[in-house]
Every structure is written in C-alpha cells, then in structure tokens.
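Long-time lurker. I teach an intro course on protein structure, and each term I like to show students one example going from raw sequence to a predicted 3D structure in token notation. This year I'd like something fresh instead of my usual example. Would anyone be willing to generate the tokens for the chain below so I can use it in lecture? Attribution to the forum is fine with me.
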Amino acid sequence: MKVVPLNSLFKVSYGNKFDFNKMKLANLADQNRVNFVSRTESNNGVSGSVLPVIGVEPYAQGCITVALGGAILSSFVQVRPFYTAQNVAILKPLVRLSLPELIYYCKAIEHNKFRYGAFGREANRTLKTLPVPSPESIPAWVLSAKQKDISKIRNAFTQLPAPRIEPNKWRDFKLGGQEGLFIIKKGKRLTKENMKEGQTPFIGSTDSRNGVTAFIDKEPMHEGNTISVCYNGSVAEAFYQPSPFCATDDVNVLYPNFELNSHIALFLTTLIQREKYRYNYGRKWHLGRMEESTIKLPVDRAGSHDWRYMDSYIKSLPYSAAI
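-- Reply from a regular --
Happy to contribute to a lecture. Here you go:
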C-alpha cells in the first residue's frame, strides 16, 4: 500500500473557533440552520444547529472535520453547511473523491489515534503530514460495498410542523428534592475485575453509545424509563435509558415524578446537557447539587410544565420516526 501525507489530498485549514454556548440556537425545521461541529465522537461531530452568523460564511458540505483535541482525530464527512468550535480542522478535497472514499479517509485518519492522547498531545502541528493511503491504494470494496437505504429514518414521527420555541416564556423547575421533577439516585462503583460479560447494560461516565460502556452479568440496579446523568468525568452527559441497567458511581439516575416517555426524555436530556458549562473536573455535579439545580421548561397556560408540547416538539423533528 502506498502512503502519502494528508495535505497532498486535502487542503487542511482550521475552523471558526466559535463557542457553542454563545451561539443562537436554530429550530431544526429552519432551512437556514447551520450545523455546529465540535470535538465530539458522536452525532457526526455535530453538537447542534445554530443560526447563521452575519458576515461569516459556513463551511461547505462535503468537507471532512477532524477533532484535534477532546475525542482526538474523530473524523466525519459533513453533509450540511457548518461552523466549528476551536481545535477542529477542515479538510477540503484537492482530488475528486466519492462519498464512500471520503468516509474511508475518515477511518484512515482515526486509525492514527494511537499517536496522540498521551500527556495531552494534540494533533494541531502534525495533522497535515499524517500518513494515509493514496487514492490508488483504496480497496475495491470501498466503492462496491452496498449501502442500506436509510432514507426512511429521516422521517419525522408526525407530519405536523414543529411547535415554536420561545425560551423566554419558560419557567425554572427543580430537578430533585421535595416537589422536584425527579427522585435522584446514585450509581454504584463496580471495577472491571468484578465485571463478567452478560446482557445488562452498564452505564459509565462517557459521552457516547447512550452511556453504555459494557454489558455485564449482573441483575439491574436501576429501572428503565429513567435518565442517566454523568456527574463526574463527562459531566452533564445525559441519556434516556429505556431498559433496566447498572450504573457506575460517577452517574446519577433520575427517576421521574411524572409520566415519562422517550420523546419527552430526549427533550429533557438536551436541556440537561446544556448545563455542562457550569461544571468541570473541579466542580462536580454531585447528587446534592443536582437535587438543588433547576432547568427551564416550557409551560402551559396554567404555568405547569407542558409535557404535551415537549412530546410534540420531538415528534416533529427529522429522524424522530426512528426513535
């Protein structure tokens, strides 16, 4: 296999260095929305959708984004115009490459992860010269492999338009404590030495795979139809857990004091994840703090949390039919 430096195939540049928390969020039904790509290994690197920034042209679809820190070298082909956070590189092809070939190069880049990560080493200086296969070395199966028809998974659960989002009219509600939204319980520490492979999901402090880090041979400690939230490590990463599971002691489990379903849960986990900026390794979101924390929720005319609105909003979004 012939190997060439990455910058012989792609023009390598560095992203916008925008702060997602300072961007104006866009409704997913907005045709002018711009994807925001950060240093994550999930959701194709996209943290959310934002409104266009005046005077700043988004990067074009068809480019590859590469995380230079965080989930280092996580690489994705972007299918919509996008902005980026800091430490995200943009690769624009200098030669004609099909979508399967671009995806192949994403995987080739990711296979170099072993070169980084130790002692905080990032890929800023060396990405351009990273060795990757030459185009003529791309295996034939890359182009001949059959792709599943995934067009239907983009459908919304309902054909009704997304309800209007007006956060300025929302109210604060406590997560826990008396009259809170949830009863919050702590996970339990379990070392790898005490784990045996099984069928029970084990939820760890991670930002991917719905929080699942292993499947173990133990009786579940927590019920399904709950929400797991990391309070240490990947702080504020929140996931809906449909099935009974076990969880590490770095995770708090939220048992609803209301009728929860998967659609409402996805609305809530998004809001919980937005609280990430308040916490870090020095200030953990432990059980006591979480019980006293509040999140803003849509309300009905009586001023109560509007669960019907949250359910309808999620069902109106693209891909919601696959939930």
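Some talking points for your students: The chain has two domains: 3-147, 167-322. DSSP finds five helices and 18 strands in the chain.
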